[in-house]
Specification:
5-stranded mixed beta barrel; 3-stranded antiparallel sheet; 8 helices
Length: 262
């Protein structure tokens, strides 16, 4: 038997061998989006601490004996997964799934739940890299922790998140609004004293609002008050900023839910 195995290995090329070996990867993952695939199977899109974006088959069985329970895979859930990663495949298999950080308040508080849906859809639309990015993963993970644990200022959470996220994409606004720079140039990401000729800019009132937002962080978000119209305008301005700097940035459908809440 030993010699038969050696003979088989000897006649297979290195490329052929990859078809027969599966890598078992253990990683912390954040759930981004789930799509129904078949009656008994869904496809879940994840952001992995080890490998970036990854897609896996998710059985929808509700059996108590199942090692992979579908109800764990809620938007922004943080899970410890063991994944069968097979080279050459775009969709992989999940062997085991456990909760890494329980999200009790996010899934029982309708406001937090709606924000989680929006943030998860935003990340699903924007993250494309299939490679490790430890700083970005830590930012997203810590932001989820803050959303889960915060009791005040929750209505401003997504504003802070959207603006802070730009720093990981390379177009965070370069400076707090200095004296005399009354316009924000959306195309170049800087504050300027006069209206840019290209037309992509915030007016004086909007620029003042952005300057205020740049001073907010998760620790202070409860100290800043916006009315419904102001908050919706800020979100629209930030998303327009993303569209100027990213190709084919789509509409976020769950934004309509936030508009009704805030």
């Amino acid at each position: 038997m030993k010699y038969i195995c050696l003979y088989i290995l000897s006649i297979l090329s290195e490329t052929d061998l990859t078809k027969y070996f599966v890598n078992f990867e253990k990683s912390k993952c954040i759930v981004l989006h789930t799509i129904q695939y078949k009656d008994s199977t869904s496809i879940v899109h994840l952001y992995s601490e080890n490998t970036g974006r990854i897609a896996c088959f998710l059985p929808t069985s509700r059996s108590k004996k199942s090692a992979v329970k579908a109800n764990l895979f809620q938007p922004l859930s943080i899970l410890d997964l063991e994944i069968h990663v097979k080279q050459g495949k775009e969709i992989h298999q999940i062997k085991e799934a456990r909760t890494a950080f329980p999200l009790i308040h996010i899934y029982t508080n309708p406001i937090k739940s709606s924000i989680a849906m929006f943030v998860a859809e935003f990340l699903f639309r924007i993250i494309r890299e299939h490679e490790q990015n430890a700083p970005l993963f830590r930012f997203i993970e810590s932001s989820i922790h803050i959303l889960e644990l915060s009791e005040k200022g929750i209505a401003n959470f997504h504003l802070v998140f959207l603006l802070k996220f730009t720093s990981y994409l390379g177009f965070y606004p370069l400076d707090i609004n200095p004296e005399g720079n009354n316009y924000f140039d959306l195309q170049n990401g800087i504050f300027v004293p006069q209206k840019p000729l290209h037309g992509h800019y915030l007016n004086q009132e909007q620029t003042a609002g952005l300057g205020k937002l740049l001073r907010i962080n998760y620790e202070t978000m409860d100290r800043f008050a916006y009315n419904r119209q102001q908050r919706q305008e800020i979100v629209a301005e930030i998303l327009d900023y993303y569209r100027l700097h990213l190709n084919a940035f789509p509409a976020i459908k769950s934004l309509d839910v936030l508009k009704m809440l805030f």
